[in-house]
């Protein structure tokens, strides 16, 4: 524009004086020409990502997702845009209700084989499990028992029931045993608390028959099973707290949907920004 003005015999300074635009303002807009459109596109992309991840991602996670898509952007700019748009991950931070299945020593208490060593580079080497309780609409309650692989944080099996009966833990255990038979390359250890389910003869016998080591937390020591407690905290903060109570069947559906999303889509920073399933799949392909 400045070049064309000079060809006509006019000085840029004179033109800007006539139209009443400061020269600094003119140069600013020339320098930032096209950026406005880029910012609009970025704003739309951030909004789409926020909705895609069910409003569970804050600005740091959204930044990582944008970087995966090729955007060269830092978290400060994403934070500013999300703040201007009113996009905030608002989840109620409450203490998770812990279901306590301890009834004293009703069977054999195993030693703590993990001793809080939660990391492992080997799939299916270290598994953890526990039971948590949800309140539903009315007087109903829901009990969830997942089994989590410490290798990648994946929930490999789970069961949901209205009452904390023995089947609540035996069904996912049997599913896990089949997975171990097909995929494990190292002897597996399953860690739990000292709840009566895990002291039960049927649980202990199933582990022994399939050559799976049993490990237990010390009594009243939640930190011994911190990885499982962490999963329960994330699940409840992202899809349960702050929501209206729903029926047992509806909550069961939502939990199943969430676990599928958690395994297949939810990015974990310690997995290099991959979901648990993507991490396992990529590692398997690399090994092959």
UniProtKB/TrEMBL annotation:
GO MF annotation terms: nucleic acid binding
Domain of life per record: Bacteria
Domain Integrase catalytic: 119-284
GO biological process, one term: DNA integration
Functional note: Involved in the transposition of the insertion sequence.
Protein name: Transposase InsO family protein
Source organism: Oceanobacillus polygoni
Highest classification ranks of the organism: Bacteria, Bacillati, Bacillota, Bacilli, Bacillales
């Amino acid at each position: 524009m400045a070049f064309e003005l000079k060809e006509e015999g006019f000085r840029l300074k004179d033109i800007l004086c006539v139209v009443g635009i400061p020269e600094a303002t003119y140069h600013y807009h020339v320098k930032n020409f096209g950026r406005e459109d880029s910012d609009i596109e970025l704003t739309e992309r951030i909004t789409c990502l926020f909705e895609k991840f069910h409003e569970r991602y804050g600005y740091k996670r959204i930044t990582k997702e944008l970087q995966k898509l090729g955007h060269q952007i830092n978290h400060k700019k994403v934070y500013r845009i999300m703040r201007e748009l009113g996009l905030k991950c608002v989840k109620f931070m409450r203490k998770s209700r812990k279901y306590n299945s301890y009834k004293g020593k009703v069977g054999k208490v195993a030693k703590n084989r993990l001793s809080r060593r939660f990391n492992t580079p080997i799939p299916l080497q270290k598994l953890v499990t526990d039971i948590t309780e949800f309140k539903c609409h009315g007087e109903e309650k829901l009990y969830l028992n997942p089994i989590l692989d410490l290798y990648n944080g994946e929930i490999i099996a789970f069961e949901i029931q209205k009452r904390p009966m023995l089947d609540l833990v035996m069904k996912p255990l049997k599913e896990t045993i089949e997975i171990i038979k097909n995929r494990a390359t190292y002897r597996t250890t399953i860690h739990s608390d000292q709840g009566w389910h895990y002291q039960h003869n049927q649980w202990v016998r199933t582990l022994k028959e399939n050559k799976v080591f049993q490990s237990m937390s010390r009594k009243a020591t939640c930190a011994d099973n911190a990885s499982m407690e962490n999963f329960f905290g994330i699940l409840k903060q992202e899809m349960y707290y702050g929501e209206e109570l729903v029926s047992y069947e509806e909550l069961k559906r939502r939990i199943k949907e969430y676990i599928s999303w958690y395994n297949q889509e939810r990015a974990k920073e310690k997995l290099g920004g991959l979901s648990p399933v993507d991490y396992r799949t990529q590692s398997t392909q690399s090994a092959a």
